[in-house]
Write a structure and sequence with these properties.
single chain, 412 residues, alpha+beta, Alpha-Beta Plaits, Molybdopterin biosynthesis moea protein, domain 2, 4 domains, 5-stranded antiparallel sheet, 3-stranded antiparallel sheet, 13 helices, 58% helix
Length: 412
Amino acid sequence: MAHVAEYKKKTVNEFVNLINSYPVIGVVDMENLPTAQLQKMREQLRDKVVIRMTKRRFMNIALDKVKDSKKGIEEMKNYLTGMPALLFTKDDPFKLAKTLKKSMSTAPAKQGQVAPKDIIVSAGPTPFSPGPVISELASAGIKTAIENGKIVVKSDTVVVKKGEKVGQAIAGILTRLGVEPMEVGLNLTAVYDNGTIFTRDVLDIDEEEFMSKIKTAYNSALGLALELSFLTKETTEIMIAKAFREAKAIALSQNIMADGIKEEIMAKANKEMLALKSKLNIPDAQKEKSKEEEKEVEELKEKPKEEEKEVVKEEKEKIKKEAEEKPEEEKKEVKEAEKVEEIKEPEEKPKQEKSEDKKGEGKEKVKKEEQKAEVKAEDIKEETKADEVKETPKEEKVPSAAKLAEKVEKKD
């Protein structure tokens, strides 16, 4: 029996313990993964994933030892390709695949690497000036042209198909063009979970496409259930609403009055009434009524104006009447003034016949009478001014008190 080194036994036992401790075991290929990037990814996954790497032979031995406790796990040996490593986690396999995919980064292609997908050189300008590089691009099947002193790729070109190895010339051209087709990271190849092995193509799904398919399936199932009138939690409310709409449509078509449709029936009747009214050219009673109301409002507005006119008219007539009465009073004043004059004249005759001794007394009396006449004339003048303020008609000309006073003075 061959002697087995203790470190080998320790390594195998470590892997056996990890396989028994974690429900989800994954296999990754770390070929062409730079050490710096591997360390960075380990830091990111430290709390979620345990990564262990050893010789493929030790991994196979560890998987064989746990095949009795982990049904079907020995099938994982078929996915130990390239530079394999085992992942141990408690996360869901799809969640693990998503986490690893987010940690991937692009890198230039190297000679001998297998293309994970079709490598495409896109159409557009390049940094190259015309020269020998044109023939290199042509040898790779890339169509070019010269524009503004630069080489331009005329159309998108597939230079390496998925699964093919990258040649030395193609790798150099891709590097010079700045194309980084390779994905660098932990390349998950398979995951074991409770007796089931999920391969990379199953785990690598497009979430948006997947959700779209689920929504399509849900809508199709819902439509089928509604068509068959199959009551479920999702279809019951929709079917009740559908039944209500159908019942409402029948009630409206037959003019059946009900609480749910009385407003619609009234609206329908009003619409038909308006159509008939328009066809028969029947005037709108409401509009006529509105016109009458407007007319009444206008009349009410005009009525106060007419009343104001009547009041103004009455005031004018009153003023006119007072103006007509004033001249008669003034005439009386004139007559009184004339009487005063008549009184003065007889007094003057005796004055001439009397002696010079009595002349002084006569003059004083005349002077007093003149003062009385002037006072009277002033009163008449003030009354005349008051009458003029009350708008005495211009047509009736009455001698003013001032003129009367002047006449009295002249006669004196």
